[in-house]
């Protein structure tokens, strides 16, 4: 049986679509745990309605403590041999559960990872591996490919074995807790099956991922912590390597890990053009703060393979030209709006 954990907070507009995709799965041995996280809308009524008409649906009501504690509550109540996470804003393909489970059982892997549809601004951006394959625990190169492609940042495109979940989501973090959870889980697996099928539909609302001021204040410390955690995990994969091979692979790995770190901050800087909650001067101060940070600048050495807009912005970012960077992020926004036919 698969236990599907769905954290729910004020999701009355999307919860029904999400639940319909779950109860109509081609694999029926499911336990659907709706962890209602102190909502102020009708989410609980929708959840209880589905609980009445489908015995596999179970509503767990708790006070509002955030998505990490909601997922942890779901893990605590889960009875299935396998665990799957679905966010209440999203939905899944009708055969997602069956496909993930079949591949885990056929390969003996302890984790399955699939692709997904990123639905944003009326676009469907498909992100998936090029082929089905198995990753062994010691395969450092394959780990780097997964990490660089961003497949390890979230829990919802995966199938976990419940007995191997020793850790919990870190509720003290406002960012990055999903990646840390995945890394801790992966320390206990021998192999992972990667699927080339996009089976999950991730819905990003326009402006949904704009950082609050609190999250911005936390971001630097969290980003560094995550970067160091990934470096530590990667080094564990190399414990059997000789000194020469270890040093060579560490250099390659750190380059990719630092590139992801840099992209996090470039993403945030580019996103400031869409953020109406802070002033021009506040944006310039944030850009300057990141420009002067020694950890970020140290990571930003010999970074290659950036797409053209990132490459241009990073050229001036490295040279600490904050006004040019500020101008470029708005030019980028204008160009994208022109291409998409939008005004805001």
From TrEMBL:
Q: Which residues form the Glycosyltransferase 2-like domain?
A: 3-168
User: What protein does this entry describe?
Assistant: Glycosyl transferase family 2
An example Pfam family from this entry, by short name, is Glycos_transf_2
Q: Which CDD domains match?
A: Glyco_tranf_GTA_type
What are the protein's UniProt keywords? Glycosyltransferase, Transferase
- Look up the domain of life of the source: Bacteria
Which PANTHER family does this UniProt record tie to the protein? GLYCOSYLTRANSFERASE, GLYCOSYLTRANSFERASE EPSH-RELATED
> Example GO molecular function term?
glycosyltransferase activity
């Amino acid at each position: 049986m698969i236990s599907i954990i769905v954290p729910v907070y004020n999701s009355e507009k999307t919860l029904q679509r999400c639940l319909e995709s779950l109860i109509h799965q081609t694999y029926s041995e499911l336990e659907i745990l709706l962890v209602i996280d102190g909502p102020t809308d009708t989410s609980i009524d929708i959840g209880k309605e589905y609980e009445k008409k489908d015995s596999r649906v179970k509503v767990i009501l708790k006070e509002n403590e955030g998505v990490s504690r909601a997922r942890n509550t779901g893990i605590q109540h889960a009875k299935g041999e396998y665990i799957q996470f679905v966010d209440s804003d999203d939905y899944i393909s009708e055969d997602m559960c069956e496909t993930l489970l079949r591949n885990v059982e056929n390969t003996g892997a302890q984790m399955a990872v699939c692709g997904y549809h990123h639905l944003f601004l009326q676009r469907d951006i498909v992100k998936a591996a090029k082929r089905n394959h198995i990753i062994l625990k010691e395969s450092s190169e394959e780990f780097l490919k997964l990490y660089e492609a961003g497949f390890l940042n979230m829990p919802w495109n995966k199938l976990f074995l419940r007995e191997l979940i020793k850790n919990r989501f870190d509720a003290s973090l406002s960012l990055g807790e999903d990646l840390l959870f995945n890394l801790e889980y992966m320390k206990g697996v021998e192999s992972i099956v990667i699927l080339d099928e996009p089976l999950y539909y991730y819905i990003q609302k326009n402006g949904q991922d704009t950082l609050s001021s609190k999250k911005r204040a936390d971001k630097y410390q969290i980003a560094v912590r995550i970067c160091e955690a990934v470096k530590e995990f990667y080094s564990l994969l190399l414990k059997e390597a000789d000194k020469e091979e270890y040093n060579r692979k560490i250099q390659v790995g750190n380059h990719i890990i630092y590139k992801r770190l840099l992209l996090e901050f470039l993403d945030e800087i580019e996103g400031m053009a869409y953020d109406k909650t802070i002033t021009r001067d506040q944006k310039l101060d944030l850009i300057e703060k990141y420009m002067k940070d020694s950890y970020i600048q140290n990571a930003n050495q010999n970074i290659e393979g950036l797409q053209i807009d990132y490459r241009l912005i990073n050229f001036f970012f490295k040279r600490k030209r904050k006004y040019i960077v500020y101008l470029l992020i708005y030019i980028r926004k204008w160009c994208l709006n022109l291409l998409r036919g939008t005004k805001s």
